[in-house]
């Protein structure tokens, strides 16, 4: 196996280039990195003595500091700093062609007892070295015992189970890189809790304007992660990731019991780059008026027909029905629906559309992007992946788990602390060569509604998220949860706000219904939960027009609004 080694020496904290000598000096002073190196070397050496020695091992450590401030109706409800350091090993037994992950392509990290497994490390490296080494030894042993049991079971079943359709190996070769970032200063790792408490109390106080608003909150979460990755092939990656996110929420309940929430969110890498308190107060005030209007809005009936999806709504739409189905590792399992595996080179979208996923993109039109990172959780440099070019499917989001005709990683292995990484999205971008304005799309919507003999179409303005199913054991469907939806009439009447909508369907059918896209793209920032835990993602999309959507009524609570008026 031929490996190439590249040394990159970027100091993020100081925004300066360093000499290799300076880089090595910094690494030498990183006590945790030294411990990880020594323990990985020692444990790999010891485990070579067994019947089934590992052929590859890696260690991950996620040192996470979280600052949180929460307010409700102008009052402080929570203010806290927390810090945790988690150790997650991965051990591969067998060979590149057949190993203990052969039948666990989308599984989380487990120990020999079958429980989700990671180890908490002491926060103080200098004073806790012995405890750190003990925890690493213990968790490595747990993972190895579980790896052995899985591998032996797979070997026993190999001759009696039907062979998988995918003939690619279990693990792929990859370039070896070393990368190191200096730790952020302590003052940059924590939020000024008192300052943000005063800001957010002003934001959430807006919702006290009407007693029919049953909950009104504003919160901030500032997360600083220092992520270590080393493996027995020589990779060493130490990088810092920061996330500052404000969430604003207001909720009411209609007289028929339907709960009606609205949400706002703001994202930046650093808290000082978030919007001003005046901007957030103004947005919250508009949201308060809108949530009250939803109480009086009519409930929609089930519908199939034309609709417009705003950039934010279509971003979630693409994330759910397309993004999860180009996560390459899924194609390894016969239990997955593999919607697009056999469609490479074929049209899956209009010729005017392109889709790519790019973890290296830090911002878009001045907005910071939640899905940014340099190296994935297998120590592989993230790459832009052109999934769809001029309407044709081209590529998948790959880890070091290869699939037929896609033998290499493009840096999309991601996992929450405690989970083994799998193929995941990062920053998903949808682009269209059509230069259509929103006014153009509305005219085209009206034309399509008339063509289908209907009185109105729909405009999905904002959504909260969605859900998709990809396994063969379930219907391959999706659901998107709109919160702001308008009925658009062909006779020129003003748009009518409606409530109680769920957007549902199946992926291939919905893709074939996209007829136009254009207008300014919008950024939707969120957290995506899947097999490797909850990870930060972004979807960026223009407004799209579809000739047919399917809508169903949202389930509503049997509980009526509170009898007592809110204080």
Description:
The chain is an alpha+beta fold. The protein is 21% helix and 36% strand. The strands form five sheets. Strands 1, 4, 5, 6, 7, 8, 9 and 10 form an eight-stranded mixed sheet that branches. A hairpin with a 6-residue loop joins strand 21 (478-489) and strand 22 (496-498). Helix 2 (31-47) runs parallel beside helix 3 and helix 4 packs parallel to helix 5 (277-296).
Could you list some keywords that capture this structure?
single chain, 567 residues, five-stranded mixed barrel, globular, disordered N terminus
Alpha-carbon Rg, integer = 25 Å
Q: Which outline best applies?
A: globular
The total of beta strands comes to 25
In whole angstroms, the N-to-C terminal distance is 70 Å
Total DSSP helices:
8
Mean pLDDT: 88
What is the compact description of this entry?
The chain is an alpha+beta fold.
Which secondary structure elements does this structure contain, and how are they paired or packed?
Blueprint: E1 5-8, E2 10-11, E3 16-17, H1 20-29, H2 31-47, E4 54-72, E5 75-93, E6 119-120, H3 129-158, E7 176-180, H4 193-205, E8 213-231, E9 236-253, E10 259-268, H5 277-296, E11 303-309, H6 311-321, E12 353-357, E13 363-364, E14 367-368, E15 385-389, E16 392-393, E17 413-414, E18 422-423, E19 427-432, H7 438-451, E20 456-468, E21 478-489, E22 496-498, E23 501-505, H8 507-512, E24 514-530, E25 533-553
Helix pairs in contact: 2-3, 4-5
């Amino acid at each position: 196996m031929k490996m190439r080694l590249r040394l990159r020496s970027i100091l993020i904290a100081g925004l300066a280039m360093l000499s290799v000598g300076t880089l090595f000096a910094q690494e030498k002073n990183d006590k945790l990195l030294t411990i990880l190196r020594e323990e990985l070397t020692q444990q790999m050496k010891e485990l070579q003595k067994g019947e089934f020695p590992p052929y590859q091992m890696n260690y991950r450590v996620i040192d996470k500091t979280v600052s949180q401030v929460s307010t409700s109706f102008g009052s402080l409800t929570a203010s806290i700093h927390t810090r945790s350091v988690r150790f997650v090993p991965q051990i591969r037994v067998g060979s590149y062609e057949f190993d203990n992950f052969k039948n666990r392509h989308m599984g989380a990290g487990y120990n020999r007892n079958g429980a989700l497994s990671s180890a908490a490390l002491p926060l103080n490296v200098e004073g806790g070295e012995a405890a750190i080494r003990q925890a690493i030894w213990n968790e490595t042993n747990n993972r190895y015992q579980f790896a052995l049991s899985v591998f032996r079971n797979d070997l026993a079943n190999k001759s009696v189970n039907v062979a998988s359709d995918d003939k690619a190996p279990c693990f792929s070769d990859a370039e070896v890189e070393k990368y190191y970032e200096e730790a952020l200063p302590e003052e940059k790792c924590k939020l000024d809790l008192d300052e943000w408490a005063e800001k957010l109390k002003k934001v959430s106080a807006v919702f006290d304007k009407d007693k029919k608003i049953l909950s009104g909150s504003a919160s901030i979460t500032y997360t600083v992660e220092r992520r270590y990755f080393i493996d027995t092939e020589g990779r060493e990656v130490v990088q810092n990731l920061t996330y500052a996110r404000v969430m604003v929420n207001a909720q009411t309940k209609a007289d028929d019991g339907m709960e009606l929430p609205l949400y706002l969110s703001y994202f930046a890498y650093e808290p000082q780059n978030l919007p001003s308190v005046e901007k957030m107060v103004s947005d919250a005030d508009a949201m308060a008026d809108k949530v009250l209007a939803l109480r009086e809005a009519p409930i929609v009936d089930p519908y199939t027909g034309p609709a417009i999806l705003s950039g934010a709504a279509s971003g979630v739409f693409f994330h759910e029905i397309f993004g999860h189905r180009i996560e390459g590792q899924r194609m390894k399992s016969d239990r997955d629906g593999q919607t697009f595996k056999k469609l490479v080179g074929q049209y899956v979208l209009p010729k005017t559309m392109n889709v790519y996923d790019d973890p290296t993109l830090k911002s878009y039109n001045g907005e910071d992007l939640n899905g940014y990172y340099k190296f994935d959780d297998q120590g592989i440099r993230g790459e832009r992946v052109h999934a769809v070019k001029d309407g044709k499917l081209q590529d998948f989001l790959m880890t070091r788990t290869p699939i037929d005709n896609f033998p290499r990683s493009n840096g999309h292995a991601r996992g929450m602390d405690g989970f083994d990484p799998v193929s995941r999205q990062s920053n998903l971008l949808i682009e269209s060569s059509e230069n259509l304005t929103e006014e153009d799309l509305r005219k085209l919507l009206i034309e399509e509604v008339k063509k289908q003999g209907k009185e109105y179409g729909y405009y999905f303005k904002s959504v909260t998220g969605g859900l998709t199913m990809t396994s063969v054991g379930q219907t391959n469907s999706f659901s998107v949860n709109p919160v702001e939806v308008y009925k658009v009439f062909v006779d020129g009447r003003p748009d009518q706000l409606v409530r109680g909508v769920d957007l549902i369907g199946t992926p291939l059918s919905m893709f074939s219904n996209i007829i136009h896209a254009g207008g300014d793209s919008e950024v939707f920032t969120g957290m995506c939960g899947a097999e490797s835990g909850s990870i930060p993602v972004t979807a960026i999309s223009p407004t799209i027009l579809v000739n047919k959507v399917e809508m169903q009524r949202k389930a509503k609570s049997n509980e009526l609004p509170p009898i007592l008026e809110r204080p």
